[in-house]
């Protein structure tokens, strides 16, 4: 199956309007990473354009976490290149990271601090000058709509609201690339939908390019583009409907099950 | 990295550590109970057993309680330095470390921020201990309070850097207690903290004496002791400086995403 998929990848590229590389604000070329004999990522190519919502879909253990660790500068890939806004993450990590906001799978808020103080911490780490810092924190706090809850320890907030505070902190320095690493894990359906809508709005309103990793198909049904990662390799990428059509499935959910299920059992 | 950005990040990290410390009221208490017990009980009990002859930097005969103060000050630095690295392991498990390491700052500088924040708390605790020592009637030379500051900062940084280096290699909190037993106790007992080194030599423990001579903790104690009594001790300062640089450099390599041990971990 991988061979036929690899060929079919080009099906989705419209030859009449090849997208110039300038449009991609986040791009990966041939990114590979191994842990000993285990190949966690195998020559992954991926692009996110400004204002684009890209869903990175993969079952557990597909390599999503490894990919995000590389994207957020925690690890360096064994091979390949990652560029954010033209900056190579290996050679100019500081410049690249300044353009990236990340919401991690694990909670990283300081639970004893308020939402406002958590945002301040993030803004200081980004070295934002005082006036801009205050303006941006206020803007994000306002957008959160937490009211008085913005000043109580985050520990007392619901899981959904904590996630939203994490999102606000990731946005405080106005990144152009937003990385969401399985950010909906542990949330109830309403919070999950709320977070998803929040991020979709960011794409539309601010032109933020989003890479949204998940193993839940419904979260990427309305994505501009879906990349299916399985065992460290990109099986297929394209708009959800086209992936479904290509797999001869009714929807992307079925297509995903068919592809990863088939590949798993082989 | 601009100077402003660097300072803001340092302030943010130090502020967070200080806030956490202020919240954990038991931590200051336990940090002070330990040396106070040594001083008020152990040293008093041994007052007549350990006769301390006149050795530099002392110009007159001193009581054992007075002799032991620099060693206990260094013990405060040692415990807090190790506790800060325990916090690093905790942060790494809890994800906060990720947030720090994805900040657009060079990694060595983020580690330096952590080191400085821990040292700041260490030094404040030593001064709190000096106050207690004075209150229970142990002589701490008045001019020494200020003169000892450089020695405290450098020794605190050195012990913190050693802790930082350990934290690279400690994966889980459970392993930490064991490591502490193999680091804290040998460092403390095989040093000049509790007895002048000539006593070891006189007792015929040649190998222990040699180890104590090269133990960086001995030099931390002696730098503090000499500074308190306004005497120069270039050798100890050189050993501290060299150990600090070596331990910090190794820790930076350990946390390097390309070369370090962390790179091989998931």
Key traits:
heterodimer; A: 266 residues; alpha/beta; Rossmann fold; six-stranded mixed β-sheet; four-stranded antiparallel β-sheet; 10 strands; globular; disordered N terminus; B: 266 residues; mainly alpha; 12 helices; 75% helix; disordered C terminus
Structure description:
The complex is a heterodimer of chains A (266) and B (266). Chain A has 9 helices and 10 strands. With 266 residues, chain A is of the alpha/beta class. A 6-stranded mixed beta sheet of chain A has the order 6-7-8-3-9-10, with helices on both faces. A 4-stranded antiparallel beta sheet of chain A has the order 2-1-4-5. In chain A, helix 5 runs antiparallel to helix 6. Chain A is globular and about 50 Å long. Chain B has one domain. The C terminus of chain B is likely disordered. The chains are: A alpha/beta (266), B mainly alpha (266).
SSE order and pairing:
The complex is a heterodimer of chains A (266) and B (266).
Chain A: H1 2-8, E1 24-35, E2 38-49, E3 53-57, H2 64-71, E4 79-84, E5 87-88, H3 93-97, E6 100-103, H4 115-125, H5 130-144, H6 159-171, E7 177-181, H7 189-206, E8 209-214, E9 225-230, E10 233-238, H8 240-247, H9 252-265
Parallel strand pairs in A: 3-8, 3-9, 6-7, 7-8
Antiparallel strand pairs in A: 1-2, 1-4, 4-5, 9-10
Chain B: H1 3-23, H2 25-45, H3 64-94, H4 96-101, H5 107-135, H6 144-147, H7 149-169, H8 174-189, H9 197-202, H10 206-214, H11 216-228, H12 234-255
Helix pairs in contact in B: 1-5, 2-3, 2-5, 3-5, 3-7, 3-8, 3-11, 5-7, 5-12, 7-11, 7-12, 11-12
């Amino acid at each position: 199956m991988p061979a036929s998929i690899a060929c079919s990848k080009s099906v989705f590229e419209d030859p009449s309007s090849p997208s110039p590389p300038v449009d991609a604000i986040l791009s990966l070329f041939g990114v590979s990473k191994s842990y000993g004999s285990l190949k966690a990522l195998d020559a992954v190519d991926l692009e996110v354009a400004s204002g684009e919502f890209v869903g990175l879909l993969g079952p557990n253990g597909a390599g999503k976490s490894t990919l995000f660790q590389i994207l957020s500068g925690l690890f360096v890939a064994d091979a390949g290149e990652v560029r954010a806004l033209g900056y190579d993450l290996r050679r100019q990590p500081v410049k690249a990271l300044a353009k990236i906001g990340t919401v991690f799978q694990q909670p990283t808020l300081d639970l004893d601090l308020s939402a406002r103080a958590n945002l301040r911490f993030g803004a200081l780490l980004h070295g934002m000058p005082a006036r801009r810092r205050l303006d941006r924190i206020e803007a994000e706090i306002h957008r959160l709509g937490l009211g008085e809850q913005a000043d109580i320890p985050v520990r007392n907030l619901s899981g959904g609201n904590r996630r939203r505070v994490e999102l606000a902190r990731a946005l405080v320095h106005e990144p152009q690339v937003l990385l969401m690493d399985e950010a909906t894990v542990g949330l109830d359906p309403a919070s999950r939908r709320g977070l998803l809508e929040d991020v979709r709005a960011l794409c539309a309103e601010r032109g933020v390019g989003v890479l949204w990793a998940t193993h839940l198909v419904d979260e990427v049904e309305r994505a501009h583009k879906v990349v299916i990662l399985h065992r460290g390799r990109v099986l297929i990428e394209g708009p959800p409907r086209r992936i479904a059509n290509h797999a001869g499935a009714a929807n992307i959910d079925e297509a995903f099950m068919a592809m990863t299920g088939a590949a798993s059992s082989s | 990295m601009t100077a402003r950005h660097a300072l803001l990040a340092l302030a943010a990290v130090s502020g967070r550590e200080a806030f956490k410390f202020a919240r954990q009221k038991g931590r200051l208490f336990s940090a002070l109970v330990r040396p106070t017990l040594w001083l008020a009980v152990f040293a008093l009990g041994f007052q007549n057993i350990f006769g301390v002859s006149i050795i530099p930097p002392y110009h007159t005969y001193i009581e054992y309680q007075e002799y032991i103060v620099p060693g206990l000050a260094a013990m405060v630095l040692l415990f807090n330095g190790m506790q800060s690295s325990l916090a690093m392991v905790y942060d790494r498990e809890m994800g906060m470390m990720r947030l720090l390491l994805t900040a657009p700052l060079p990694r060595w500088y983020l580690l330096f921020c952590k080191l400085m924040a821990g040292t700041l708390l260490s030094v404040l605790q030593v001064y709190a201990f000096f106050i207690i020592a004075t209150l229970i009637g142990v002589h701490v030379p008045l001019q020494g309070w200020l003169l000892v500051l450089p020695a405290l900062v450098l020794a605190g940084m050195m012990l913190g850097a050693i802790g930082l280096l350990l934290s690279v290699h400690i994966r889980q909190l459970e392993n930490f207690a064991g490591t502490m037993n193999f680091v804290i106790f040998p460092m403390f007992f095989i040093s000049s903290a509790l007895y002048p080194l000539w006593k070891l030599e006189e007792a015929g423990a040649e190998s222990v004496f040699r180890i104590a001579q090269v133990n960086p903790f001995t030099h931390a104690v002696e730098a503090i002791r000499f500074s308190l009594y306004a005497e120069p001790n270039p050798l100890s300062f050189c050993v501290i400086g060299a150990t600090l640089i070596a331990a910090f450099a190794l820790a930076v390599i350990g946390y390097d995403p390309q070369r370090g041990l962390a790179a091989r971990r998931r």
